[in-house]
Amino acid sequence: MVPGGTEVDVQVTEPVSSSNANVGDTFAVHASSDVVVNGWIIVAKGAAGVGEVISVQRAGSHGHAGTIGLQMDWIFAVDGEKIRLTNQQTTQQGEGKEGESSTVTIVSWIFLGLPGLFAHNFVKGRDVVVDSTHTFQEYVFDTVHIAATTQENSGFAH
């Protein structure tokens, strides 16, 4: 049994950019580390999943930076089941604690300095790019049952 609120860290597989992404686009994600519950691996490092672009604003003139909103939808468990993800960590009492980002808006800012007070009228803002260097802290949406077959390596030879 995998309780809702179990942490799952994910990364995008390919870069997602506000310059060419559209609302509704899906993208591949993968688990950045094993997810272990009670000594059993329930999501293996590298497990595939899917996220979705939920908002996008392209960079514009006057130094206006691009933004992109991403939502992580699900990831495969070791038994092939899809585990729904959320950015809300819930406790057994059902109380929510805001996660780092599932539905996250990522903003790129340009710092133009004093000359930028006037030059920004002629400068195009930067688009934001999310790549595999950014890890998203996600959580299992609700309690699921997974048929785990591999125990976490305890560091001892068997």
What does this structure look like?
The chain is mainly β and 158 residues long. It has a single domain (7-140), classed as Lipocalin, CATH 2.40.128. Helices cover 3% and strands 40% of the residues. The chain has 1 helix and 13 strands. The protein has one helix at residues 116-119; strands at residues 7-12, 16-17, 26-31, 35-37, 40-43, 48-57, 67-76, 82-86, 88-90, 96-98, 104-107, 129-130, 136-140. The protein is elongated.
Essential attributes:
mainly beta, elongated, Lipocalin
**In percent, how helical is the residue content?**
under 10%
In total, how many domains does the architecture comprise?
1
Largest sheet: 6 strands, antiparallel, barrel
Q: Determine the N-to-C terminus distance.
A: 26 Å
Write the layout of secondary structure elements.
Layout: E1 7-12, E2 16-17, E3 26-31, E4 35-37, E5 40-43, E6 48-57, E7 67-76, E8 82-86, E9 88-90, E10 96-98, E11 104-107, H1 116-119, E12 129-130, E13 136-140
Antiparallel strand pairs: 1-3, 1-13, 2-12, 3-6, 4-5, 6-7, 7-8, 7-11, 8-13, 9-10
Q: What would a concise description of this structure say?
A:
The protein is 3% helix and 40% strand. The chain has 158 residues and is mainly β. The protein has one domain (7-140): Beta Barrel (Lipocalin), CATH 2.40.128.
